[in-house]
Design brief:
16% of the residues lie in helices and 34% in strands. It contains 5 helices and 18 strands.
Length: 294
């Protein structure tokens, strides 16, 4: 039987004035604007559980396990890079293409040049182009962010994703945290928090995370029972503490089945489990924040 595994591909390229080469441009003197964008692209890939597959000049090719994570990463790349300053007299644009690659069991089964196709889809300044094949694998919520191209011009059927639109469902957890390049101190506590496809790592080097309905929080939970600034997690030298400042309280459920409800007080986080802002457990983990302490 011919089994195939599908990998989601994301190609991102930083382009300047319609091209990527100009001997008159000094990236170092300009403050490394291109490198800053490439660094943000790579950090977004890591934050969305992807991997960099190829690095070439001003472009990066990344792989993801799901269509949703690939599109969410592309959306976040555009958002993160759009707020960076431009160089006087220079225009920098980020182009992103999304496609999928089918890895067949037998080498002679072959697929079209999926990686080349992905790169060719990255053809719209500050835009995201999604192949029809990958779009079919998106959840209904994220598929709503795509629309037909006004002028189709690609070898494969493709759509354009509106990365400026608000996410249609709060379950995606807002923007993800950029993982720190610094490892936690030896012997110090750390905690990994995961909400939907978003994750962040806290340690003594990055000790604080905020959770709430306000988009400025590190983890955004969109629910009527969640306060704008609901709770705070802090890493201390000997413990990890959750402080609730909300109206409806927070439920903590460990994998061992221990359930703790706090309201305007603190609790120590240990082991693995779920944090449920604004609601009781009732054997329902969906929409909760997964925590894993070390």
């Amino acid at each position: 039987m011919n089994r195939a595994r599908t990998t989601m591909l994301l190609y991102a390229e930083v382009r300047r004035d319609g091209g990527t080469s100009d001997t008159a441009f000094d990236d170092e003197k300009a403050g490394h604007p291109i490198d800053r964008r490439l660094n943000r692209i790579e950090r977004v890939v890591a934050a969305n559980n992807g991997q960099i597959s190829e690095r070439s000049g001003h472009s990066r090719l990344a792989v993801f396990s799901s269509a949703d994570s690939a599109l969410l990463a592309a959306r976040e790349m555009q958002k993160r890079c759009s707020v960076l300053p431009h160089v006087s007299g220079q225009t920098l644009a980020l182009r992103i293409g999304l496609h999928c690659e089918i890895a067949h069991q037998r080498s002679n089964d072959g697929d079209e040049d999926a990686r080349g196709t992905t790169a060719r889809l990255a053809a719209i300044d500050d835009g995201i182009v999604v192949s029809d094949r990958l779009a079919e694998m998106l959840s209904d919520d994220l598929r709503e962010m795509t629309r037909p191209l006004i002028t189709p011009r690609f070898a494969v059927p493709a759509l354009q994703a509106d990365w400026r639109a608000e996410l249609p469902n709060g379950r995606y957890g807002g923007e993800s945290f950029f993982p720190s390049s610094v490892m936690p101190l030896a012997g110090g506590p750390s905690i990994r928090l995961t909400l939907g496809l978003k994750s962040l790592q806290l340690s003594l080097h990055h000790p604080v995370a905020t959770i709430g309905r306000d988009p400025a929080n590190d983890l955004v939970v969109v629910d009527d029972h969640v306060s704008r600034n609901h709770c705070l997690i802090e890493v201390h030298p000997g413990r990890i503490v959750l402080s609730d400042t909300s109206t409806n309280g927070t439920t903590i459920v460990t994998d061992a089945g221990v359930e703790t409800i706090i309201k305007r007080r603190t609790a120590v986080l240990e082991g693995h489990g779920f944090i449920l802002p604004g609601r009781l457990f009732r054997n329902e983990r969906r929409g909760g924040i997964r925590f894993e302490t070390v």
